[in-house]
Amino acid sequence: MRMRCLAWFCLACGLSLLSGPASADEPAWGEGLSDRELAIQRWFSHLTHMQGHKADPWIGWYDDGKQLDVTAFRYQFAFGGYGCVAMAARTPAYRDLIARQLGDLCERMVDRRTWCYVTHYWDYGDDPPDPCRYENVMYTGHLTQLMCLYELMTGDMRYSEEGWDFVAEDGRKTHYTLEKAVRGLRDQSLASPSGGICCEPGLVFADCNSHSANSFLLFDLLHGTRYADANPRWFDWMRVHFRNKVPLTREFLYVIYDQKKEVFYPVGDVGADCWALGWGYPWFPDPGFLKEGWKHICKKAKWVTPEKGRAYAVNNKVIGCCGGGSLSVANSFLPLAGVQAEGKDSPRAREVLNWLEATYGKPLDTDGDGRNESYYYNVCPKHYISATGLIAAALATDGDSMRTLYRTPRTEILAAPTLAGVDYPNIYVRAAEYRAPVLRFVVLKGNPSFSGKTELRCEKITGPATVLRDGQEWTEVTREGDTLRIRSDVGTEHVFEVRCGAAAP
């Protein structure tokens, strides 16, 4: 009897090993993107690759004709792109959409229309204008962070290997690679008394230096360099000297340091605080600084609760940049700091998101078919793109998720089986993840008028593979090399599993 029981036990163990780890030990599959996030993705696609960066004018983007203020193209492109990245991180095995969105935004960033303002601040003599040459971390920091994120998310190293040209109005070109731009920022940081890099001539903002610091971190991650060695000196100086010391004020940080006069402007803003903290958290050497700052904001900011479950912080109307000057814009920066400090269920961050949703959230029909397929936050005509990117980043972030993304190589993800292409925007991808030996993805109809069957293209499929749809074996599959082409209707949302090297259960 004992031998028979032992035999059955061994058989059960063997079957368990063949089928993989017990489900109780497996983490749940990622939930992917909500309907709201899918609609925001659709809106950013409308603004970027579906329009094309060569369009003239750039329809839907705010253009004041000067590009000097926080309404400038560079901020719209950057915050829109960062929001797209945060959402794309939720579908790691599906990267085609983020490649198109970020690729378009990077090309817009190097377009002269984005950096035409530089001659307002700097004299280039007989040389062509070069937006990365002098100070201007408010441009170069965002440019390099966007390009580093493009390389991180896609594995396409075009900006490091081929580079790009800045083309002046007279046609003269200045060639850059990503490392040249990153190195220029690092050299300015090392030459600075504080480690901070100036935006406008002589003025250092903690906010914009978060993006150069993120670029150092990301470029090192991608290429094995040591540019982020410059970050601790700036961090140590900033966390002490940028702290707001003006009596009877509520803000955590100053906004501006005048490097020439060695003085801080005695003003702060809750939006600027959360810009520095929320976008600083990925690179901060000490993550406790975010938590300290968020605790201060929750306690000291002037909070208004228009109704239960909704709240906003009163901003500094004197500061017309860096998140200030506008109540809606300032509050758009808050949730990302909160969800990183306390997790996605952060009470105060959730209240601000609820207020933004109720006050500014708006469905939109961008393709003229009478259906609202897109979604954005109409905070004001000048800032709605940046604000939507900021809110999207907060919706897709939970605790250390963004910090981990910025610090973790994606070599294995990029080499693994992937959902390489769908018929976007007719088809949306809610979730896509690979856990050996299963590539799992969830697809649904994006365009309500779409009917019939669609093709889902999977790549890097090695060895034998079985496809399941909603738990049942699916046979409308063709294969050529490591590419699988799956044909399916999308009348309802479907869950697909490609079991690599294993038969269907």
Short description:
The protein has 505 residues and is of the alpha+beta class. The chain folds into 2 domains: 379 residues, Glycosyltransferase (Alpha/alpha barrel); 85 residues, Immunoglobulin-like. 42% of the residues lie in helices and 17% in strands.
Q: If you had to describe this structure to a student in words, what would you say it looks like?
A:
This protein is α+β, with helices and mostly antiparallel strands. It folds into two domains: 35-413, Glycosyltransferase (Alpha/alpha barrel); 416-500, Immunoglobulin-like (Sandwich), CATH 2.60.40. The chain contains 19 helices and 18 strands. It has helices at 2-19, 35-47, 73-88, 96-110, 112-115, 118-121, 137-154, 158-161, 178-191, 206-223, 231-241, 270-278, 288-300, 327-332, 334-342, 347-360, 384-395, 401-407, 411-415, and strands at residues 164-167, 173-176, 203-205, 256-258, 263-264, 303-307, 310-313, 361-364, 374-377, 418-421, 427-435, 438-445, 453-459, 465-469, 472-473, 477-480, 483-489, 494-500. The chain has a five-stranded antiparallel sheet with strand order 11-12-18-14-15, with no helix packed on it. Strands 10-13-17-16 form a four-stranded antiparallel sheet. A three-stranded antiparallel sheet has the order 3-4-5. Helix 3 runs parallel beside helix 17 (384-395) and helix 10 (206-223) runs parallel beside helix 12 (270-278). The longest helix has 18 residues, at 2-19. The protein is globular. The two termini are 31 Å apart. The model is unreliable at 1-24 (pLDDT under 50).
